[in-house]
Design brief:
The protein is α/β, with parallel strands linked by helices and about 450 residues long. The chain is built from 15 helices and 15 strands. The longest helix is centred in the last third of the chain and has 31 residues.
């Protein structure tokens, strides 16, 4: 398979498609290619939106690919939009790997609609954060699969997650791709088990599109690196053990486990390709600095605490006056209430772990400074949207209006501080889709070869 040729076939996009456009796209393919493509309803969102599965081809094995596992992650939905059309037209690709291909372009349409305010740009960190939404952990489709582990028990499974469970149980897929993407940084991957023959290709794909690998800090200290920028998929169990080992309470506000964890009983190989909207030359700079990695991590944790303090300062005084009970309120509340345990666990790890007692690279400094500021800015943006929503429904009490003014000022101050230190670019959507497409096809080829 000529991966580069398929990647070159991705067209230019000037915006991300809306939920309605994504749904219309798969419906149109089912109408245009009735011998190849079949559409059926498999579930319903929390707000009553029908969820449909598009199946293409007739291979003996199953590949299951779904987009928007978090609603602020539409790159994968664009990849589904492109790949489904390619499979319908390209018989060699459709049939050559031995798969029936199954797609859901957006598994969280309710949350994704709350992000559509930034889908057409301008593509800046400030605009993204100002129109951003991400659910609280126990409201995330990807992280509400049932789990029982030690003192953790979670069974508050969302309707969308129940739908994914039914589809996984029916298909027992050989390959599953949960199409995540990061916000800022470089490209990195999660896979469910070691696959050494894949690593070189996964490293080459971003370079073909002139994108960097993310070589700074991993998302969490307990992530196991299989190769640079390639990690073994973790479940809630690893998070639990990490918190427990470093003095946190893993059961304080529980959420569930992941689609990968749920599908392991079928031997499913899961791929996650984390793509950024923005990058910076420092995200993979391995130059060694004079700063200890331990000090860099502790500095990043102090930035996180500063952002959480901003949320507390504006949330707690108005908490009893809130009437909207919006998704933004649940998200902000989860950050305010959950932040302390994880921060303290990370501090203990940073101070005690021999892994942190060495000089930091430029990439690690960037992870612990600019990237932390970027991701904390998103919570402040949701705080502003929460307060604006209260005013919009007529609940503009004096306290809510006062804290809305203050939250907007804090948001602008935070954005100004971050933007003054960045040398970022907004990555063209075509390049992001192309790398994700290449990773999906490379993994499908790897599994097909192993099967053969």
């Amino acid at each position: 398979m000529d991966l580069r040729e398929y990647m070159r076939g991705v067209p230019e996009f000037d915006r991300f498609l809306t939920v309605d456009e994504l749904h219309a796209g798969i419906a149109r393919l089912a109408e245009d290619y009735p011998e190849i493509a079949r559409l059926r309803r498999v579930g319903t969102s929390r707000l009553g939106e029908p969820l449909h599965l598009l199946s293409i081809g007739h291979g003996p094995k199953h590949a299951f690919i779904f987009g928007c596992p978090h609603p602020n992650e539409p790159i994968g939905a664009m990849m589904v939009h492109h790949l489904t059309a390619v499979l319908c037209r390209d018989a060699a690709l459709r049939d050559g790997l031995g798969y029936t291909w199954h797609f859901i372009p957006c598994v969280d349409p309710d949350g994704t609609r709350l992000n559509e305010g930034w889908f057409a740009g301008p593509f800046t960190p400030r605009h993204y954060a100002r129109h951003f939404f991400r659910p609280a952990p126990d409201q995330q489709v990807e992280w509400t699969f049932p789990v029982a582990y030690k003192r953790l028990f979670f069974d508050r499974v969302l309707p969308e997650t129940q739908m994914l469970m039914r589809v996984i149980d029916e298909l027992q897929p050989e390959l599953m791709v949960s199409l995540h993407n990061a916000g800022f940084g470089g490209v990195y991957y999660y896979i469910s088990r070691a696959a050494e023959p894949l690593y070189d290709t996964l490293h080459q794909l971003p370079a073909w599109e002139e994108l960097p690998l993310n070589l700074g800090e991993p998302e969490a200290p307990f992530m196991q690196a299989l190769a640079p920028a390639i990690y073994r998929m973790a479940s809630v169990r690893e998070s639990y053990d990490y918190l427990e080992a470093h003095g946190g309470d893993p059961t304080r506000r529980p959420s569930g486990t992941s689609s990968d964890d749920y599908a392991r009983k079928y031997g499913t190989f899961t791929l996650v390709v984390e793509m950024p909207y923005f990058d910076d030359p420092r995200v993979n700079d391995q130059t060694v600095t004079d700063t200890r990695r331990r000090d860099a991590i502790l500095h990043g944790l102090a930035i996180q605490e500063e952002a959480t303090d901003i949320l507390r300062r504006h949330f707690l005084p108005v908490e009893r006056e809130l009437r909207g009970h919006s998704p933004f309120e649940r998200s902000v509340r989860s950050i305010v209430e959950d932040g302390t345990d994880m921060l303290e666990a990370q501090r203990r790890w940073a101070r005690e772990s021999p892994e942190t007692d060495r000089p930091a690279t430029v990439a690690e400094l960037f992870s612990n400074n600019e990237l932390v500021q970027f991701y904390r800015m998103l919570g402040i943006g949701m705080l502003v949207r929460m307060l604006e929503g209260e005013v919009a429904i007529g609940n503009g009490t004096p306290a809510i209006r006062e804290h809305l003014v203050g939250a907007r000022a804090d948001f602008d101050r935070w954005c100004d501080r971050l933007e003054s230190t960045l040398h970022y670019r907004a990555i063209p959507i075509r390049q992001l889709v192309a790398v994700q497409l290449g990773a999906v096809l490379a993994t499908a080829q790897y599994l097909s070869d192993a099967r053969g």
